[in-house]
Automatic annotation (TrEMBL):
The lineage of its organism: Eukaryota, Fungi, Fungi incertae sedis, Mucoromycota, Glomeromycotina. SUPFAM superfamilies: Nucleotide-diphospho-sugar transferases. The active site is at E279 (nucleophile). InterPro entries: Glyco_trans_15 (IPR002685), Nucleotide-diphossugar_trans (IPR029044). Pfam families: Glyco_transf_15. One of its GO terms (biological process) is protein N-linked glycosylation. GO terms for molecular function: alpha-1,2-mannosyltransferase activity. PANTHER family: ALPHA-1,2 MANNOSYLTRANSFERASE KTR1. Belongs to the glycosyltransferase 15 family. This is 10565_t:CDS:1. GO terms for cellular component: Golgi apparatus; membrane.
Length: 327
């Protein structure tokens, strides 16, 4: 068993390159609250997605040549109503880092972006900006989910004051970030991504390129902070993970990081997870066979809707099982 401080320190080694300058770059509340604030958040009977328009919108004023050497992009899952908060974050990100590298931005939304949103975000950067609408099947309840069961579970969690326990839209967001964002065709041409949330702040200049550092050092996943998950949101997640491990032992990396997520050699989950509001990673980790099988296995169990499985523990468990320690 690792002591907690040793466990955190060991994992942080892989991200020390950028840890010191992004320690304050994530606002943990932002990713949870912005998909809960919609007036449709608790509407179990209506999907909040506008399915009629799913085209990709490219809005590119005169741009500078990309100076970054890696096929990478900032990925922003955002609503039109988050524009003002994100303008501040984007301005800081440009001033502190991206003005030197001009890495592109990929904005994703479950409904079409407004002209105002495209105008103001594209005006902040000389980098390429692209705006995509999430496909219906990536932001809706799949046909194998029993919605009566899901509604009952949500209502029970709401009554128990589980954070976002009663929100359907929040569940769509968690499922999308867990298993679909990297499948959006706007990301097909990229190898790495940096997730950016509205409201985050960047206080220090970032002189070096973390994408290049990760590429050169075989690092697949980076984070800024690790926390404990709310137990009531994932009561059966670990049992499902153990089922997966038993069924697909060949997909588990031998030099894995099980010690981070379990204090008893995999018998139970210790709730540790990387906070995914800020994450930087190799898209091919999620595109690979191991994670594809893993997400599909979890998704069919229904825990994203019957419980409230989050993308943070899902990504964390996957990274711990499928990557080598140094990655």
């Amino acid at each position: 068993m690792f002591k907690r401080n040793i466990k955190y320190l060991g994992l942080a080694v892989t991200t020390l390159f950028f840890f010191h300058w992004v320690l304050n770059a994530t606002n943990p509340k932002s990713g949870y609250s912005r998909f809960e604030s919609s007036e449709h958040s608790d509407d179990f009977d209506k999907e909040i997605v506008n399915h009629e328009e799913q085209k990709v919108i490219k809005h590119n004023p005169p741009q500078s040549t990309q100076h970054g050497k890696v096929k990478a992009a900032f990925v922003v899952l955002i609503r039109n109503s988050d524009l003002q908060d994100f303008r501040v974050s984007m301005r800081q990100l440009e001033d502190r880092f991206n003005r030197k590298y001009n890495y592109p931005y990929v904005f994703l939304n479950d409904e079409p972006f407004t002209e105002e949103f495209k105008k103001f975000t594209s005006a902040i950067t000389k980098a390429k900006t692209e705006y995509g609408v999430i496909p219906k099947e990536h932001w809706s309840v799949p046909n194998w989910i029993d919605m009566d069961h899901a509604k009952s579970s949500m209502e029970k969690m709401r009554e128990e004051h589980v954070i976002y326990g009663g929100s359907l839209s929040y569940r769509h967001m968690c499922r999308f970030e867990s298993g679909f964002f990297y499948r959006h065709h706007l990301l097909d041409k990229y190898d790495y991504y940096w997730r950016v949330e509205p409201g985050v702040q960047f206080y220090c200049d970032v002189d070096d390129d973390p994408f290049l550092y990760m590429q050169n050092n075989d690092i697949k996943y980076g984070f800024t902070i690790s926390l404990y998950e709310y137990p009531k949101t994932i009561p059966t997640l670990w049992d499902t993970v153990k089922e997966f491990i038993k069924e697909y032992p060949e997909l588990i990396e031998k030099d894995n990081l099980m010690e981070f997520i379990s204090n008893d050699h995999g018998e139970t989950y210790n709730l540790c997870h990387f906070w995914s509001n800020f994450e930087i990673g190799d898209l091919n980790l999620w595109r690979g066979k191991a994670y594809t099988e893993f997400f599909s296995f979890l998704d069919k169990k229904g825990g994203f809707f019957y419980e409230r499985w989050g993308d943070a523990p899902v990504h964390s468990i996957a990274a711990a099982l499928f990557l080598k320690k140094h990655q």
